[in-house]
Amino acid sequence: MARVFSGVKPTADVPHLGNYIGAFRQWVALQDLHECIFCVVDLHSLTVPWDPELLRKRSRSAAASLIASGIDPERSVLFLQSEVMEHTELTWILTCVSRMGELSRMTQFKDKSRNTENESIGTGLYMYPVLMAADVLVYRGELVPVGEDQKQHLELMRDIAERFNRTFGDTFPVPDPYIPVEGARIMGLDDPAYKMAKTTERPNNLIWMNDPPEVVRKKILRAVTDSGREVVASPDKPAITNLLSIYSAVTARPVSEIEQEYEGKGYGDFKKGLAQAVIDFLDPFRARYLEILEDPGRLDKILDTGAAQAREMAQETMQVVRDRIGLRRS
Ligand code: TRP
Fold first, then answer.
1. CATH number at residue 226
2. Does residue 147 share a domain with residue 63?
3. Does the pLDDT of residue 142 top 90, yes or no?
4. Which pLDDT tens digit goes with each residue over 149-205?
C-alpha cells in the first residue's frame, strides 16, 4: 500500500466531465488499493487574481463534487489546503532548497506569464510548483495521480525531495507520478485537438457535471465528428475516438463493445446513444452533489475531520524537517 496524494484547484462551481474521467475517477479507484489523501488546493487559487466570496464558495463545492464523485471520507482524508498550516511552512523551507533556474523552466509558468511584462508577473505563479511539492512531501506522499500537464511539476518535486534528502538526510520518499489509464484524457467536444477545458468563449467545448439533460443532449449532438461514418476508434478519427472514450468511461463498458453495438449505424445514432449514457451517468452525481451542498453542517464536519487527520500527519513530518534543518531550540 502506498500513500497517495492529489489536489484539485477550486476553479469552477462544478467539475466538467473531463475532470471526472481524467482525474476523479482514478482517485476513486485508488481508494481500494492505497491510503489516500485528497486536497482542495485553495492556496493554489491565489496565484491568479481571485474573488474572496467566490473562492470560499468554490472550495466548498469542490469538496462536495469529490464526495459526489465517489471519494469516501470514511476511507480517504479530504480537506482544504489552507486549513493545514504546515503546507505553507514547508513551502518556505522548500523555496530555500529550490532554484530560480528550475522554476523558470516550468512550461506552465512560461505559458501563463507569456503575455505579461516581467516586472508584473505574479510571484505566486512562479512559486506555484514549490507549494505543490510541499503539498505532497508534507505527507511523505509516494504516489501522485496527475494529468499530463503536471508531469513537469512532479519532476521538480522529485528533484527538490532528492536535494533535500542529500543535504539533510533521508526525509522524504521521492514521489512517483501516477498517470491515468488510457482513454482518460478527454478532449474538447468542439475540437478534439485540445483537451476539454474551461473557457468562456466556447461553451460547447465541455459538459459540466451539473448540465441538465437537454443541455447535455444539445452539446453532444453538436460535437464535431470525423469524415466517414463508421463508429470506430482510430488515430485518423480523433473526434469519434474521444466520444468513444467518454461513452466507455460513463458506462464502464469497453470501447470495442460499443463499437460493435454501433456497427452499421451512423454518427447520428451513436451520438443519441452517447447523450443518453452521459445523462444517465450524471443524474445520480447531480443528486448527490445537491444533497451534500444542502447539508453544510455535514460537509463542515467531514472537512474538519479531514483537516485534523491531515494536520496530524503533517505535524509529524514537520517535527523531523525542523529538527534536520536546525530550526527550534533543542
Ligand atoms: N497543480 C495541480 C493542478 O493544477 C493541483 C495540485 C496542487 C496538485 N497540489 C498538488 C496535484 C499536489 C497533485 C499533487 O492540477
1. 1.10.240.10
2. yes
3. yes
4. 899 999 999 999 999 999 999 999 999 999 887 777 899 999 999 999 987 788 899
Is 146 near ligand 1, meaning CB less than 6 Å away? yes
Say how many Å lie between the CA of residue 191 and the centre of ligand 1: 25
The whole-angstrom separation of Cα 126 and Cα 101 is 11
| Residue 7, ligand 1, Cβ within 6 A | yes
Same domain, 15 and 109: yes
Q: Could you tell which of 142, 150, 153, 154 is best to mutate to test the pocket of ligand 1, judged by most ligand atoms within 8 Å of the CB?
A: 150
Q: What span, in angstroms and rounded, lies between the C-alpha atoms of 202 and 239?
A: 17
Are 137 and 237 members of one domain?
no
DSSP structure string for 29-42: HHTTTSEEEEEE-G
Q: What's the gap in Å between 41 CA and the centre of ligand 1?
A: 7
At residue 162, what is the residue type? E
CATH number reported for the structural domain that contains residue 146 in this entry: 3.40.50.620
pLDDT digits (tens, 9 = 90+) for 240-257: 999 999 999 999 999 999
Do residues 155 and 137 share a domain? yes
The SS3 of residue 170 is coil
Domain-embedded: residue 138: yes
Q: Which of 9, 198, 265, 272 is catalytic?
A: 198
> Domain limits at 313?
3-178+296-325
Q: Which of 154, 163, 151 lies closest to 135 in space, CA to CA?
A: 154
The cell for 152 is: 513537469
pTM of the model: 0.94
- 210, 309: one domain: no
Same domain, 162 and 228: no
User: Is residue 198 flagged as an active site residue?
Assistant: yes
